Amino acid sequence: MDNRLANNIKVGLLLLATLLSGCSSNNSLPVATLHPSDTADINSYRYLIGPSDVLSIFVWRNPEVSGTFVVRPDGMITTSLVEDISVSGKTPTELARSIEEILSTYLRDPIVTVTVDTFVGPFSQQIRVIGEAAQPRAINYIQHMTLLDVMIQVGGLTEFADGNDAVLIRIEDGQQKEYQVLINELLKDGEISANVDMLPGDIIIIPEAWF
């Protein structure tokens, strides 16, 4: 009886080990994809609506379907006539034309105006600063924003930062590219030539210095 119990325990442990090894082999996650912005240069920037934006939608002569709407995390809004309208990734003008087309099913020749009251924008338009920034975070892109503007918003560098080995990651023509940025020279030495234009979706990684 004791030998049978011992054999059953061994078999159980073997099955458990097999299951665990199978789980670990299938426990890899896909690498996150950096989604490119549609802004290829600083002069082609257009603000795109994103989740958590607050929109004012005015339908001329139809106040019952006008109002203020918060964009849901799935990029949709709900109106009194239409439950789900996809808005994320559109400019306010594009969204206005899209809503006019949707409302034409219910209203005659609707005229729609869309304004953005609170700006958040999609992740693909935000600039993210990680590593040894004083306040690492995501920043809403503003047209003609530069590296200096970004560093002011994150409070500069920590005392442990190696700013001259910082890396800017950018998607260009569908390819991820890396550029060295000289943040120490810009902030500590006042070297304005180290200031560079930022684009929506840029990521700045600031490493720790080796002492």
Q: Which whole number gives the mean pLDDT?
A: 89
Largest beta-sheet characterization = 5 strands, mixed
Q: Which CATH class of the largest domain is shown?
A: Alpha Beta
What's the end-to-end separation, in Å?
65 Å
Q: How would you sum up this structure, described in words?
A:
The chain has about 210 residues and is of the alpha+beta class. It folds into 2 domains: about 50-120, wza like domain (wza like fold, 2-Layer Sandwich); about 125-205, Outer membrane lipoprotein wza domain like (Outer membrane lipoprotein wza fold like, Roll), CATH 3.10.560.10. Helices cover about 25% and strands about 25% of the residues. The chain contains 4 helices and 10 strands. It has a 5-stranded mixed beta sheet with strand order 7-6-10-8-9, with no helix packed on it. A 3-stranded antiparallel beta sheet has the order 2-1-5, with helices on one face. A two-stranded antiparallel ribbon has the order 3-4. Strand 3 and strand 4 (about 85) form a beta hairpin. The protein starts with a helix and ends in a 5-residue tail after the last strand. About 20% of the residues are buried. It is a multi-pass membrane protein. Pfam families: Poly_export, SLBB_2. This is Sugar ABC transporter substrate-binding protein. Keywords: Cell outer membrane, Ion transport, Lipoprotein, Membrane, Palmitate, Polysaccharide transport, Porin, Signal, Sugar transport, Transmembrane, Transmembrane beta strand, Transport.
